[in-house]
Amino acid sequence: MTLTSGQIYEFAAAVMVAIAAGLVGSFALMKRMSLASDVVSHLALPGIGIALALRLNPVLGAASTLLIGTLLVWGVEKKTGIATEAVIGVVFAASLAIGALITPREELEEVLFGSMRPIGLLEFIVGCSAAAGVIAVVLVRRHYLALALFSPDIAAASGINLSGLSLEFLLLFSLTILLSLKFLGALLAGALLMIPAATGRRLATSLRSFLAYSAVAGATAVVIGLAISSGFQRIGASGPAVVLVSAATFVFASFTRKQI
Amino acid sequence: MKYQADIERTGVAAGEMTANPNVRQILEEPIISVSNLSIEIGGHCIIRNANFTIPKGSGLAVIGPNGSGKTVLVKALLGLLPYTGVIRWAPGSRQGYVPQKILADPSLPMRVEEILAAKAFVQKMTPADIADAVAWAAIGGLLEQRLGALSSGQLQRVLLAMAMMGAPNVLLVDEPTASLDEGSEEHVFQLLETTRKLRGTTIIIVSHDLALVGHLATHVICVNAGVASFGTARNMLRQDVLESSFGAPLRFHSHNLENKS
After folding, report:
1. What is the average per-residue pLDDT within B233-246?
2. What is the ipTM of this complex?
């Protein structure tokens, strides 16, 4: 099987995005954001639906609703005493419903579950640069994030603006979801952040190894998953294959080593 | 403004005190002076109109019943909570902080050396700063341990090392022995007292255990029902004063309160 240039771009971009997702997902997992990750990815749906209906670029639509969602999650996070889970549950279901209603039927599967549609050079460059940016920022800021996770009090006393750091991380998180949408779709994008990170956590004995394992687990899942879905023409969407490979890696890692 | 007038008056008084040549300069120069400090949280007044000044190299014990606002007071001193009034640290003072509660999930995959390195990075410190603090707290053997594998005594020493990075001249320590056995308790207090005596580090220590802080304190703040009463250890750690501050009779074992610098 020879790969077209579009497919090569697709694979390369997917690997970059998966590495970014593994790194961001590692911190999201430690911050116990699994639930928030689902909400945020689902929030992309109505945006994509509106953009498609208006014949705009769906990435723009997704980006705008993701941004709104990010600020919403940040606001809820800042206010204690609000039933966060209830708010998240309502927003989650409502955005899925809105998205499903307004997204054109023929596009719905791709929007929900991702696609193997090859990408062009411009998409490749933009996607890879954004993913590289996410990777760089997480690596540079990992000390801040780690200290804030360990003890918000020590972090604040060391001069870290906790609220600002939290917003910064949520924006990175949403950008990573946005990048993952192409490959996994709005229903499964959150999984590319959470499952490889869960695998990494099973294997890791330090923060450094945690980040490395998560990134490798993410990259492995997209390469094998995309290969499977392009090999079997019956499978239209790429997301389910990636998620299944990722989940299988997690199960394998769980048996390999006890959780620390 | 009433506050403003008080603040200015206190400022002048503090200046006069340090300018007086008869005062022993090193000992009496204040490390922190607090005037008209009030702290409100969620509409509740936790601390009302507190005033105190402590000299460099003091051991200040912040005592009071559980839930009386000792932690709140310390956090306000560090600028972590909003307050009214004036908190003035001496120029050049650097604070190290050991909080009471660490929220960290024990299963966090982080090693001791990684969390020390994180703090050093955030505060732009050098590997030498880390090494000094590690030696001070004697945690060289723990560096490769995962955080979750530490005993509470070991974690406390790691926290002390983190606070001591960069050699601050003030250490604020919140309930350092809350979850420790007696041996580790003794070790922590010895370390703090030695540091105060040898390095002249000001120690501000929160405790609900009077017997323990009696060893270390040159000054005492007793926080209860919004009132923070302040005095020297000799004056404050008397049965009658404590009972009126705590608002209830209590047992207190005096531990050689003489012999304090």
Report:
1. 71
2. 0.86
